[in-house]
Each structure stands twice: as structure tokens, then as C-alpha cells.
Amino acid sequence: MSINAGDKIPASTLKTMGAEGPVDITTDEIFKGKKVLLFAVPGAFTPGCSMTHLPGYVVNADKIKAKGVDTIACMAVNDAFVMDAWGKAQNAEEILMLGDGNGDFTAALGLEMDARGFGLGTRSKRFAMLVDDGTVTHLNVEPAGGVDVSSAETMMALL
């Protein structure tokens, strides 16, 4: 069963890239006392993610933050090295790039998908959520193949 609006974010540890390499970052560090817009993609460097999803957040980052969002975070079931390289390739300096390499956080959210048919293994569904001090206030999960309900523009309208 997936997480829903009103639920607390489960405790987990993700990875982000630090000056010396990958570093742990806990969900408390990401969400506690903050308003966060977290969006997830099936995979870094994949077409829909690279052409539409992440670029929408990059272009609108200042507008999103101006509406009271402390952190915009992008997550995928990829490692921190891949997420860092993808963020740099997309000029995503304002986005916290999070690697959920083993998919543990994605599974805890109940938002995993079977992408073995594409040779990708278990990945995250495409989604976006607004989280206020660790509690989900909005969750938009895309139907297969879509990049609409989790887009930057759709999420901005909820702020």
C-alpha cells in the first residue's frame, strides 16, 4: 500500500553527493521542519525524465521556492554518482539530487514499480509530493508513461 496525504514520511536514509563523494542523508534531515517538494523519476538520463520532468523543476525552481518551498528534491532508484552527474548535465543546482540506490525508501513509500520489461529492475513510479514537516500534504502519482500530474507546473498550482 502506498503512502497517502496525511501520512508521515517513513524513516530512511538516502544518498547525495558531497565534496568527498556520496554521503548519507536521512529523511529527518530532508523533511523535518521544512516544506519540501519531492519528485521521483523512474531513472536518471531516461527520455521523459531528462526532456520533461526534471527540466520543468529546474526552470521553475525560483518560482517554487518563492511560494514557500524550502527544498526541491529529485529522487530515483539510482546511485548518488548517477544522480550527481544527471543533475550537473541538467543544470539542476537548485535541486537536491537524491539516490535511493537499493530502492529501500521507494519501497517504504509503496511507490515502487517493476521495470524489468525495460531492463531496469525495480524502480520508482513517477510521482511528486508536497511534504510539510514530515507529513505528506499532497501526493500525485503518474499513470504509466505520463509526465503531467507530477509536473512542476501542476505542483506549483497546489502551493
TrEMBL record:
It is an enzyme of class 1 (oxidoreductase). GO terms for molecular function: thioredoxin peroxidase activity. One of its GO terms (cellular component) is cytoplasm. One of its GO terms (biological process) is hydrogen peroxide catabolic process. Keywords: Antioxidant, Oxidoreductase, Peroxidase, Redox-active center. The active site is at C49 (cysteine sulfenic acid (-soh) intermediate). Its EC number is 1.11.1.27. It catalyses: a hydroperoxide + 2 glutathione = an alcohol + glutathione disulfide + H2O. Residues 3-159 form the Thioredoxin domain. It holds the Pfam family Redoxin. Thiol-specific peroxidase that catalyzes the reduction of hydrogen peroxide and organic hydroperoxides to water and alcohols, respectively. Plays a role in cell protection against oxidative stress by detoxifying peroxides. Belongs to the peroxiredoxin family. Prx5 subfamily. This is Glutathione-dependent peroxiredoxin. It comes from Parahaliea mediterranea.
